[in-house]
Specification:
CATH superfamily: predicted glycosyltransferase like domains
CATH architecture: Beta Barrel
Radius of gyration: 15 Å
Oligomer: single chain
Structural class: mainly beta
Low-confidence stretches: 1-8, 142-146
Shape: globular
Strand content: 25-35%
Largest sheet: 6 strands, antiparallel, barrel
Distance between the termini: 44 Å
Order of helices and strands: EEEEEEH
Number of helices: 1
Strand order of the largest sheet: 1-2-3-6-5-4
Mean pLDDT: 77
Number of strands: 6
Number of domains: 1
């Protein structure tokens, strides 16, 4: 029987990188040319260095390119004793990830679960994201929701 523990789906066994049940606020821009207000906010269902799953109100076709903004809790990324900068006063550090829809499946509540593969992170964002994943796991906060996404 296939391993479905990290996402609840059989395709989890084909992943290059593990996923963790981390819930952070995300904002997806389905059309990179559309205005910023044409986005969907959600929480990640699971998250890893190679991608994530979210719930969405609308289905998305496989291989569609999207932009994803991840809101990482700043308190996990600040050095001890460091003052909050202007960027982290809102409690989140945001990074933008060029992504693609790997799969989409209907969910029981009429929404859709969407598997997202990360295609490109800038090197500084990659380093920040990896540090976040390490710290999040070390602090034992996996699966706890950090709160709502900041307002644009």
């Amino acid at each position: 029987m296939p391993d479905t523990t990290s996402s609840g789906h059989a395709w989890a066994e084909r992943r290059k990188y593990p996923r963790h049940p981390i819930n952070i606020p995300v904002r997806c821009q389905f059309d990179p040319l559309a205005p910023e207000d044409e986005t969907e906010e959600s929480l990640s269902e699971n998250l890893g260095i190679g991608g994530m799953a979210i719930r969405a109100d609308q289905p998305l076709e496989q291989d569609r390119r999207i932009l994803v903004m991840l809101y990482l809790p700043a308190n996990l990324l600040r050095k001890p004793g460091a003052e909050a900068s202007d960027e982290t006063e809102d409690e989140f550090i945001s990074i933008v990830v060029a992504s693609r829809v790997a799969w989409c499946a209907p969910f029981v509540d009429g929404k859709f679960t969407i598997g997202i593969e990360f295609i490109h992170l800038e090197p500084d964002d990659q380093e920040c994201f990896q540090a976040f994943l390490r710290e999040y796991q070390l602090m034992g906060t996996v699966g706890k929701e950090p709160g709502p996404a900041p307002q644009p």
